[in-house]
Amino acid sequence: MAYTTFNRNEFDTFAQPMFFGEHVNVARYDQQKHKIFESLIEKQLSFFWRPEEVDLTSDRKDFVDLPDHEKHIFVSNLKYQTLLDSVQGRSPNVALLPVVSLPELETWIETWSFSETIHSRSYTHIVRNIVPNPAAIFDDITKNEYITRRAESVTKYYDSFIHLCNYYIQLGEGTHTVNGETIEVSLHELKRRMYVMMVSVNVLEAIRFYVSFACSFAFAERAKMEGNAKIIKMIARDEALHLTGTQHILQIMARGKDDPEFAIIAQECRQDVIDIFTEAAEQEKEWAAYLFKDGSMIGLNKDILCQYVEYITNQRIGALGFDPIFVTKNNPLPWINAWLNSDNVQVAPQEAEISSYLVGAIDSEVDTNDFGDFDL
Amino acid sequence: MPSPRKAPRLGRRRWGKAKTFHSPAQTELDLPEGQGSSSQIELDLLLPPILVKRRADEPVPIQGELLLPEFQGETPEPTPQIEFEGMQKPIFDIILEDGRQARFQHAHTLLESLESQDIEVHYQCREGYCGSCRTQLLDGDVHYLEEPMAWIDDDEILPCCCIPKSALRIKLQ
């Protein structure tokens, strides 16, 4: 299955599965097997924003005034989010594009990764604004053991899939000897690795980001680091959409809607899914402990944050059709919903860019009042 | 004397628009000393509705303050649509699996209706793309105001972007 950038074969688009079918050729969207991906692309494009739109000058003042343990919370979260978006900005492209078979899905993957690169750029924008030497923060991401430990579990499923997929693209299925090493390539194993990889991506977007989100919003509830919170709000809005994307991919796979083999794999991997979610939740709790090691911040402490991790884990695994893992039923941080809701922060329009301003959107709402002065 | 603390809302009420924000210039209204209540009533009548008086003990709203929804989703429209015969408003009873009851009458979405009747539903985007409000539909039928994007099962609905088409029996998460 050598990769070709423009497949010359003639084939029926509707007979193609999402992955491992014919390679894509014409980027056409008139025939869509799963029209949800087109909707996701449109939504993501309407969300477009640029970090430079948000003014961070007051954040610099706020940051200087923060006590040391709160600086630690803020900077550590920023580092972790930078790591997550660095991974997400490239990995979906590298892993999925070589094997994708539907043009709308291919474009969704590219749109998805692109928006993650905006997130990465916004972290640089934040760091540049709050500290004199940004390198000190970025250099630590690959050195700090708390972050590298989590980088390992974030990337291992991607790397294991990409490793096998490279052999599959070059050599196809079968047993091969490369540099004296025997390599077994089976499509079933490749699909299994893809499924668990998608689950881990889902976990990344659904759970891992939310500890940082909670901290950023807790700062802003006290009117501190508000520019940062405004950026995080837009990142959270994007992530909620990406999450919907991976949930759709996983559910289409699990139902065998276009590739019955994936339905079998989804059955086989049920325990893996639970393990991946549980492992991530435990790691996030450890992270919460690390964040608050020198002291809590007003409105948030380790216990509440851990309960929030449990609550959100239950929610997300429920969306994939699994039973809740933890007993926590209620949201311990209900005020977060108001921040995660697209446009609920009141600002004077002259002071900041309004995020409710959708680029390229038309308000088609017509009220009877609009016809009040209308005569024939 | 009824004091108009909030400016009357004009047009359609929508989520996120129902915010009270007063710039200092609009909230402060210094009355000359020695004026009795009778002249204050006159003043009230003269004031355009946007001017709001703030009592001394009332906190000044902070810039960028997070304002949670405070409007009642189930209050009737100030400008109701013309009613036609054969096109009844969708007024339906909603029964929850745990025994609680509500009635959908005036709200714009099922989620707003439930919230205004003190039934808590998980929510996030309120636009149908995040799936936080996913709810099981046991009985009845709903109409979507916009196509839901989040993944939902065949027997599930997203209350944030639908209204009932019949009486409903639902089970919250």
UniProtKB/TrEMBL annotation, chain A:
GO-annotated biological processes: deoxyribonucleotide biosynthetic process
SUPFAM superfamilies: Ferritin-like
EC annotation from Swiss-Prot or TrEMBL: 1.17.4.1
CC cofactor: Fe cation
CDD domains: RNRR2
One Pfam family cited in the UniProt record for this chain: Ribonuc_red_sm
Annotated keywords: Deoxyribonucleotide synthesis, Iron, Metal-binding, Oxidoreductase
Transmembrane helix listed as a keyword: no
Gene Ontology MF terms in the entry: metal ion binding; ribonucleoside-diphosphate reductase activity, thioredoxin disulfide as acceptor
Entry keyword Metal-binding: yes
Membership in a protein family: Belongs to the ribonucleoside diphosphate reductase small chain family.
NCBIfam families: PRK09101.1
Full protein name: ribonucleoside-diphosphate reductase
Provenance organism: hydrothermal vent metagenome
